[in-house]
Design brief:
Keywords: Transferase. The chain is α+β, with helices and mostly antiparallel strands and 179 residues long. The protein is 21% helix and 33% strand. The strands form two sheets. Strands 1, 2, 5, 6, 7 and 8 form a six-stranded antiparallel sheet that branches.
Length: 179
């Protein structure tokens, strides 16, 4: 029996069309839910469409102000059931700019089959923009892998927006081909 993994995606891979292209299958074996990673910040990477996350302790050095709880929390998608092959494709896609690490993720809704995940822009944005509950009311944490950006100097002192990505750049990734 093969083992499966869970991963938290916070950028381009939150879009199911892009995720399916990267893992090179229809993802019918996967389940997902919106989720949140606490005490990390999600930044624009200089000169590209995708983000990078770093621990809050490093992220706050990029700002000259205190961050709100929402700003020092990263919304994303928890995906469960990833195969070894899926992870290999993901590791290749993320490359050497990121390190895969285990983190505690808080689900924000019940999980569902990824085949039910809407690929409509408005639905994707709404799924990840509902108000956050107070931290003590979050669901119990769930262990998952995520990709942490390694070169802080390549990050902008600006938070990355999934809504902006969906509106302005997601379509560019729909025919993604690896180098």
């Amino acid at each position: 029996m093969s083992t499966t993994a869970s991963a938290f995606f916070y950028g381009t891979l939150m879009h199911p069309t892009i995720l399916k292209q990267i893992i090179q299958n229809e993802a019918t074996h996967l389940v997902y839910c919106p989720a949140i990673l606490l005490n990390y910040t999600r930044h624009k990477v200089k000169d590209v469409d995708y983000p990078g996350i770093i621990p809050e302790s490093k992220g706050k050095t990029l700002f000259s102000r205190e961050l709100s709880q929402d700003e020092r929390s990263v919304r994303g998608t928890l995906v469960m059931g990833l195969t070894e092959s899926d992870i290999e494709f993901l590791d290749y896609f993320e490359g050497d700019e990121y390190k895969r690490v285990e983190v505690d993720i808080h689900p924000l809704a019940p999980s569902a089959s990824i085949s039910t995940h809407s690929e409509e822009d408005l639905d994707l944005v709404l799924l990840h923009s509902t108000p956050l509950p107070p931290t003590p009311e979050l669901a119990s944490p769930f262990k998952a892998q995520t990709y942490v950006f390694l070169n802080v100097a390549q990050l902008e002192p600006e938070l990355w927006s999934f809504e902006d990505f969906v509106k302005e750049n997601a379509y560019k990734w729909f025919d993604y081909e690896s180098d």
